[in-house]
Amino acid sequence: MQLRAPAILIAVRPHGETAVIARLLTEEYGLVAGYVAGGRGRNLRPVVIPGNLVAVDLRAKSDSQLPFAKLELLESRGPWLSEPLPAAAIQWVTALTATALPERNPYPSLYNALKALLEAICQAPSARGWAPALLTYETLLLRELGYGGAKPEAEGLADILAAMEKLADPLQRYLLADRFGDTMAAREQLIERLRKMV
């Protein structure tokens, strides 16, 4: 296995003393994982942040071996992680994507939607600018995996929050059932912060 592609880093797990296992979403190859040597070192720590857009070079000798990954930063989400609302949104969408998607199945529409959503979270002047895109992404994820229907009609932050409340059950039941960890906690934290704006 060998690939080089732009990717969205969606999850990082420490491995050994200084390395990490990175999970990345690519447009052409879907969700892939790789061993990043020195991922917790001073040079790579700013690169291995969930939400970052990176160029990944993935190489493995066989399909059964975890590939080695080299990452090059293309776009950082680091500056927005000090802001509570954008940080909570980035944490939720990356955790949801990492938990829900199967590996090595391409979902080009989800890749492009997540890339646009992360861009909106970082560029919009407030959550009112990116909350509709977040609702659209959750709905698209359900639909792409065979569980969803039409996007709920919502205008204004109060309507979006109400629509997000309705999506909580299908997300929990279909995408996150029997998964290790409490991914929904990140969503609940985000919704609590959004409610303060209403």
TrEMBL record:
Residues 1-69 form the DNA replication/recombination mediator RecO N-terminal domain. GO terms for biological process: DNA recombination; double-strand break repair. GO terms for cellular component: bacterial nucleoid. Gene3D superfamilies: Nucleic acid-binding proteins (2.40.50.140), Recombination protein O, C-terminal domain (1.20.1440.120). Pfam families: RecO_C, RecO_N. The keyword Membrane does not apply. InterPro entries: DNA_rep/recomb_RecO_N, NA-bd_OB-fold, RecO, RecO_C. The keyword DNA damage applies. Keywords: DNA damage, DNA recombination, DNA repair. Belongs to the RecO family. PANTHER family: DNA REPAIR PROTEIN RECO (PTHR33991:SF1). This is DNA repair protein RecO. It comes from Parerythrobacter jejuensis.
